[in-house]
Automatic annotation (TrEMBL):
One protein family per Pfam: LRR_8
Annotated InterPro entries: Leu-rich_rpt, Leu-rich_rpt_typical-subtyp, LRR_dom_sf, Synaptic_Scaffolding_LAP-MAGUK
Organism, as annotated: Pleurodeles waltl (Iberian ribbed newt)
SMART domains: LRR_TYP (SM00369)
Full protein name: Leucine rich repeat containing 7
Membrane-spanning residues: none
Record-stated family: Belongs to the LAP (LRR and PDZ) protein family.
Length: 224
């Protein structure tokens, strides 16, 4: 008896612990798979995937599987591929907060980007983009923009309506001037514009009182 009951209790406890550990291990695996690529092995997990990473996959277009998660997708990484254009369906991903696709072959940023009203971080560096569309102003949540190493010669006036912008990286581009009301970006803390063709700065820059880092090296200033 007492010994028998104790033995049965221990065996039951051990079995319960083993089952619990197996469930935890399986849950962890499911989360990892869900973060990286769409997995159809676990029914019910598809609709809660919020992060997809297709970096360094030699892709020439955005995978269609991405659009299966347009209601829940918050972060999309497409770094270092050969993608030339962004499909319209991508801009139906209303929950998207971060879009990262540096080192691709994009030649433009479509006007449909205005649909990404929750976008906070955008990395389009090392592409062939020549300009931002005027309606970039609709992405009012944008806080970080990395657009270095693109042949961008100017910024549209609408750009200055991104008043939640805290970090802007536009190094090694073809910038010739900044919009007169650039100083409206009063939340900017980091502004990097080195290696451009800037000759002057707008007077409104004096309003950027929260700047912690300003890099204007290797430009063509004749006056400040």
């Amino acid at each position: 008896n007492r010994n028998g009951k104790f033995l049965r209790f221990n065996l039951w406890t051990f079995t319960l612990m083993k089952i619990t550990m197996q469930c935890l291990e399986m849950t962890t695996k499911r989360k990892i798979i869900g973060r990286l690529v769409p997995c159809r092995c676990f029914r019910g997990e598809e609709e809660v995937i919020s992060v997809l990473d297709y970096s360094h996959c030699s892709l020439q277009q955005v995978p269609k599987e991405v659009f299966n998660f347009e209601r829940t997708l918050e972060e999309l990484y497409l770094d270092a591929n050969q993608i030339e254009e962004l499909p319209k369906q991508l801009f139906s991903c209303q929950a998207l907060r971060k879009l990262s696709m540096p080192d691709n072959d994009l030649s433009n940023l479509p006007t449909t980007i205005a649909s990404l009203v929750n976008l906070k971080e955008l990395d389009i560096s090392k592409n062939g983009i020549q300009e931002f569309p005027e309606n970039i102003k609709c992405c009012k949540c944008l806080a970080i923009i990395e657009a270095s190493v693109n042949p961008i010669s100017k910024l549209p006036d609408g750009f200055t309506q991104l008043q939640n912008l805290t970090q802007l990286y536009l190094n090694d581009a073809f910038l010739e001037y900044l919009p007169p009301n650039f100083g409206r970006l009063v939340k900017l803390r980091i502004l990097e514009l080195r290696e451009n063709h800037l000759k002057t700065l707008p007077k409104s820059m004096s309003k950027l009182t929260q700047l912690e880092r300003l890099d204007l090296g290797n430009n063509e200033f004749t006056e400040m």
